[in-house]
Amino acid sequence: MNAPERLAALPDIQSSVDPRNLAIQRVGVRGVRMPMRIATERGEQPTVAEFEMTVHLPADQKGTHMSRFLEILEATDSPLDASAMLAMLDAVCLRLEAEGAFLRVRMPLFMHKAAPVSGVVSTMDYELCFEVERRPSGGQDRVSQEVLVPVTSLCPCSKNISEYGAHNQRSHIRMAVDIDPMAGADAPRPEAMIRAAEAAASCELWGLLKRPDEKYVTERAYDNPKFVEDLVRDVAMAANQLPHVIGSQVESENFESIHNHSAIATLYSGTRLSRW
Q1: 0.85 cut: is pTM over it?
Q2: CATH of domain 21-270
């Protein structure tokens, strides 16, 4: 008996009937790391991606076939973007015979940036996340794209009440947009989201700065103070102006320099419901 014949002869316990009659909304794998490529404005970029992949399990089915998730990832050759994730969603539903599925992938994204005065080029890292979902009840697929962008924020109150100086802090802007599934290649690239978040901050960050650059970023932040509330409102306005965006969620966490706690704000609009 050859290998395929031996495999066919083994019992398929996962496909047996379960008597408890309880459907499971999500069952699958999490924490799967794979070398992948990201589709960027400048072409493909290598990365290491971490996946969560689940399917809806009907009430009468005992289990799902976990190995098939890994088979799909091993066969994936397209660089990751919103369209590639939708194609992977199709593959999961087909391969695992599921009416609904949810996929999430997180990975670092690197961008080369020129310093504002000296022009010296250095690398900045960001976090990129894609989510796609198909509900067993039908309806339109959900496609979400998220970036985590570190920036500088400077307190307007501190500037207003102080004779000189003002306290500032590092802030993390988490910006997620729900994209029309029909957008295809016209969906906004992650770099566009990153630029929009950075433009709304008191000042953006660079990996490498010379002294003239440090002078620029210090004065830029001082001339552009933002409360955490200002940040989420300005970023949300920018997010909702991106093409094919039907909903957004923005969070800013300011790691305070004069307190031992953070200031946070979250704003969501359009089709987006809070998912954090």
Answers
A1: yes
A2: 3.10.270.10
